Amino acid sequence: MEDAWLATTGRRIIVLIILSVLLMAFGSLGYMIVQDFTLIEALYMTIITLATVGFTEVRPLDESGRIFTMILILMGAGFVAFNLAYFSQLLLDGDLLEIYRRRKLEHQLDKLKDHYIVCGYGQMGQIIVQELQKAGIPLVLIENDDALLIKIREKRIPHLMGDATEEENLVAAGVRRAKGLVSVVSKDTENVFIVLTARDLNKDLMILARSGTPGTDKRLYKAGADRVVSPFAIGAVRIAHNILRPTVTDFVDLALSGEGMELSMEEICIPEGASLDGKELMHSGIRSRYNLIIVAIKRSDGKMIYNPSPRELLK
Hints:
By secondary structure, this protein is α/β, with parallel strands linked by helices. It has helices at about 1-35, 40-50, 65-95, 95-110, 125-135, 150-155, 165-170, 190-200, 215-225, 230-245, 245-255, 285-290; strands at about 115-120, 140-145, 160, 180-185, 205-210, 225-230, 295-300, 305. The protein has a six-stranded parallel β-sheet, with helices on both faces.
């Protein structure tokens, strides 16, 4: 819808420019025929007539020249009045500002790399965008609900208004250059289609998706999702944990949120060839130098080592 509006406004502006050129050509040609002016003289007379600046005539006009000038003035005045009214309306409606904003956004999207694409700005999408922005992670939001547009702009979220199931919108959001994609639209069928399309466009993309109903998880994994989250299942388990182990739940929340100055839980990737690669935990200096506690080590094959021993290798 937004693309169609921009295209329509752009076409109208182009038409106005073309009409302006045609009016100038009409005036110049008229003076050349009626008054036998040269091209430069005719163009000069046309410009000062339409601009109503009141400079001296190039050459004295005869009766036919004066009649043509009056016609040109009336045509020019009407056209200028129409242009002023149209552009004033654009300014009042914010349309010109919208065109500028859209072009600026497209330029920003073209430069994005290793970013995340968030599809859907519902309750989950809003929280995800908020957390990613808080962490300073570049992102692009795709949403097709015009009612959310004001909120999205107020929060200065890089966005595309459109359907995330359409390949062209994913491409415009830079899916081929993106690091990951999060699909949290309300319908499971749309999430499956988004995951399928995104995986086809970028084989290395990290894809996370929302599952709203039982059984959708398998379809999402089959479509190409790396991780699937069911908010209802997680919410139910979370409530149960608050009943059974409230203190543990509070501890994990505090560690993951990072809001406690004395406690924060983070994950660190050790690339091959790094200074810590291949070192034993006891010789890494992590505890003595940074006062950090290694809770677990995850191997490249996915194996998780909890409470690692001092002789466990970092790699």
